[in-house]
Amino acid sequence: MASLTELDGPSDAALAAAWQAGSEQAAADLVRRHASALARFLTGAGAGPGEVEDLAQEAFFKAFRGLDSWRKESSFRSWLFSIASNLRKDAYRRGKGRVVLSIEDHDLPDGRDPASELVADETAGRIRAGLARLPRLQREVFLLRAQQGLDYGEIAAALGTTAGSARVHYHHAIRKLKELVP
Amino acid sequence: MTCQELSDRMPSVAAGAATWSQEEAEHLRTCAGCRAEWAVVSAGRAVGAQASIDADALAARVLHRLRTEPIVRRFQRRRWLIGLAAAAVIAIILLPAKLPRGQPAPPLAVDVPGLDGLAYGELADVLESLETSWTETSTSDAPSLDDLDPRELERMERSWEI
């Protein structure tokens, strides 16, 4: 699946090949293209503000060092997410990972109607809190689907599971999160 | 129009890549379950939107590391550890054959040092050496580890950790 930003320039595969041929500019372009999405994913997955930057840096570093193992069946972005997910899992296993709940409200949608804004506000807050309580796989599948818009095949590739399992995890997550909607 | 069909379309509509058809909008208006799911997916789309990262600075740091950090092949660095682990496993396999008949074999639970710290490639190497020692001491038709795909190898690795 091509990421939207690929429409405006060389494909991720072309940039990756250029990096392997020695172009640092190509690597920098790949970082700029995917950094924001990766940061959103890591934040949604519960990484704290300082941790997001460290994990993103490590994920890109590992990706460039291990480009040979990127099988082009999945997009560069979903492969990058798989590396980031593993890093987060490792951090959690080491006891350093915590699911952090943001108390900032910058991610709340702008609403012209104060009443609907309040409802959206409340829903967003509940969903963030609910996400922190979900099992890791359910949380990450939900984020990759709802936040990143990946299809189940891509999610399966990113999280090392099957498309069918990803679908089941997603629906479990939805079912639990729906209970939090006022 | 089913709830499942609507559910499948929600992420792309939430991302702005698609819009509801008239039929879908009507379903959404009348189905409370789908409305609740839509609220969840819409809110999920916004999760993490506050995350800000300086992509240029990140790119510079990543490139600096790529330039300066040597490529460390832990696989080679810990070859001695692989050898030690393989020797321990071979000893486990051969030991029962050396015991006098009628005497119960000792328990097979042995701590193989350092396996927890092995990288994936190293574990694969250990597994390969296991396979060699097995085929050398057995005539059984055990399936080859070469037949395993990476996911199966990973599962095996996990089972070792248990």
Radius of gyration of chain A: 17 Å
Provide the structure class of chain B: mainly alpha
Mean pLDDT of chain A: 84
Radius of gyration over C-alpha positions of chain B, nearest whole angstrom: 28 Å
What is the secondary structure topology, with strand pairs?
The complex is a heterodimer of chains A (182) and B (162).
Chain A (H helix, E strand, L loop, with lengths): L11 H9 L3 H21 L4 H17 L10 H18 L20 H20 L2 H12 L4 H8 L3 H16 L4
Helix pairs in contact in A: 1-2, 2-3, 2-4, 3-4, 4-7, 6-8, 7-8
Chain B lengths: L2 H12 L7 H9 L1 H15 L8 H14 L5 H4 L1 H20 L21 H18 L12 H12 L1
Task: Kindly summarize this structure in a few lines.
Chain A is an all-alpha fold and 182 residues long. Chain A has eight helices and no strands. Chain B is elongated.
Task: Give your account of this protein's structure.
The complex is a heterodimer of chains A (182) and B (162). Chain A is mostly helical and 182 residues long. Chain A has 2 domains: 9-100, RNA polymerase sigma factor, region 2, helix turn helix motif (Rna Polymerase Sigma Factor, Chain: A, Orthogonal Bundle), CATH 1.10.1740.10; 128-182, Orthogonal Bundle (Arc Repressor Mutant, subunit A), CATH 1.10.10.10. Chain A has 8 helices and no strands. Chain A has helices at residues 12-20, 24-44, 49-65, 76-93, 114-133, 136-147, 152-159, 163-178. In chain A, helix 3 (49-65) packs across helix 4 and helix 6 packs across helix 8 (163-178). Chain A is globular, with a radius of gyration of 17 Å. The termini of chain A are far apart. Chain B has helices at 3-14, 22-30, 32-46, 55-68, 74-77, 79-98, 120-137, 150-161. Chain B is mostly helical and 162 residues long. The model of chain B is unreliable at 132-143 (pLDDT under 50). Chain B starts with a helix and ends with a helix. Chain B is elongated. Chain B has a domain at 1-97. The interface between A and B is large, with 49 and 39 residues.
